[in-house]
Design brief:
This protein is an alpha+beta fold. It has one domain: Nuclear Transport Factor 2, Chain: A (Roll), CATH 3.10.450. It has four helices and six strands; from the N terminus they run H-H-H-E-E-H-E-E-E-E. The longest helix has 19 residues. It is globular.
Amino acid sequence: MTKLPLLVALTWAAATAALAGPPSRVDDAALRALGASADAAWDARDADRMATYYAKNASLLVGGAGGEQQGRASIRTYFQRAFAGRQGEMRHVSEIRGLQMLGDDLALTDVWVRVEAKQPDGSWKPVRRFNNVSLAARKAGVWKLRAVRAYPTT
C-alpha cells in the first residue's frame, strides 16, 4: 500500500528535478554531512547508527540484495545481516552528483557510490559501484533519508 505513494513521489521528484532549485549553503552542508555520517557508520559496520539516518517510515531498496525494506527497524535488520556477512576491511565512498530541493523540507540526491576493499598493500580496490537516488526529508530541523534506491552498476 505504501509503495504506490512512494512511487508517485519519486516519479514526481524525478520529473520536477529540472525545475527544482539548488539547496542553500546550510542545507547543502547538512545533506552532505548526512551522507558522510552514513558512510562512516557503514564503514564501522554499525547497523544501529546507520538506521538512525533514516526516517521512521523510510524505505530502502538495494538492487540485487532482496526486497524493499520498509521502516527503520527493517532497515536496521537489513544492515545487520549485510554487515555480518562482510569479509575484510571495506569502505563506502559516496560522491554526490546532484542535489536539488523539491520543497523547503524535501531534497532529491543523485549519488555515485563505490564500495572498496582494502588490499594487503594498504590500497583500496573498488569491488562494487552503485547509483543511488534518494529523497531526504527534514523534520524538526533534522534531515533524514526518506527513500533510498541503490542500483548496482558493476
